[in-house]
Amino acid sequence: MICYFTGTGNSAYVASRIAGQTEQEVLNLFEKIRSQDHTALHSEKPWVIVCPTYAWRIPRILSDWLKQTPLTGSRDLYFVMTCGGSIGNAEVYLKKLCRQKQMNFCGCFPIVMPENYLALFTTPTQDEALECIRKSEPWIDQAAQEIRQEVPFTSIQAEAKDKLNSGIVNVLFYPMMVSAKKFTVTDACIHCGLCAKVCPLNNIQLRQGQPQWGKNCTHCMACICRCPKEAIEYGTHSVGLPRYTCPL
Fold first, then answer.
1. Domain 178-234 falls in which CATH fold?
2. What is the pTM of this model?
3. What is the CATH number of domain 2-173?
4. What is the pLDDT of residues 138-149, one digit of tens each?
5. One-letter-per-residue 3-state SS of the chain
């Protein structure tokens, strides 16, 4: 079974393409994470987790969900991580997670996809995004082939900077960066409520039709990138930048 978590669609696209080549069932984990549903899941085929990279590891909300959710049937677990450039030393933490779940770690495969992290970086134009995705597709297909053949992914040799990024930088990133305090809404808001619906942590409430952010944010960028009127800003950094959702 292929399970995916996504904020702006990159991991959904990768999961769908892998599923098309492996003939596996696909499950969007959004509602399960949002509702804290930890009901056991079952698959006779190897498990494949597809997700974005947050500070050189898998998202904490996904890691927490995996720790609490029984995966029965196959004991083999693959990870495919979309990223803007690198997944750092994520592999070592995923091996630990697999040991905790008494599952076989079958490797972690990085897929470079268009950048969506409006809190820090510049997002691509649609043409730039499409070119990036085109370049990623042979790598997605390679991952799918290895999953289909049930061959473990090649281990990634981590450098010193990778260990630093996935280690102390990740630890400091969440308390220092991951907050909803800088999200604001402009007069362009049409009160559609989509931002609240796409928040995986149910962190957005509508008051008089306008979004109000709580304290439980994971910086998935779904609210700001999926707003149909680009009425949400993240401080001043996002002003004038294109919003990104996977165009395919």
1. Alpha-Beta Plaits (3.30.70)
2. 0.96
3. 3.40.50
4. 999 999 999 999
5. CEEECCCCCHHHHHHHHHHHHHCCCEEECHHHHHCCCCCCEEECCCEEEEEECECCECCHHHHHHHHHCCEEECCEEEEEEEECCCCCCHHHHHHHHHHHCCCEEEEEEEEECCCCCCCCCCCCCHHHHHHHHHHHHHHHHHHHHHHHCCCCCCCCCCCHHHHHHHHHHHHHHHHHHCCCCCEEECCCCCCCCHHHHCCCCCCEEEECCEEEECCCCCCCCHHHHHCCCCCEEECCCCCCCCCCCCCC
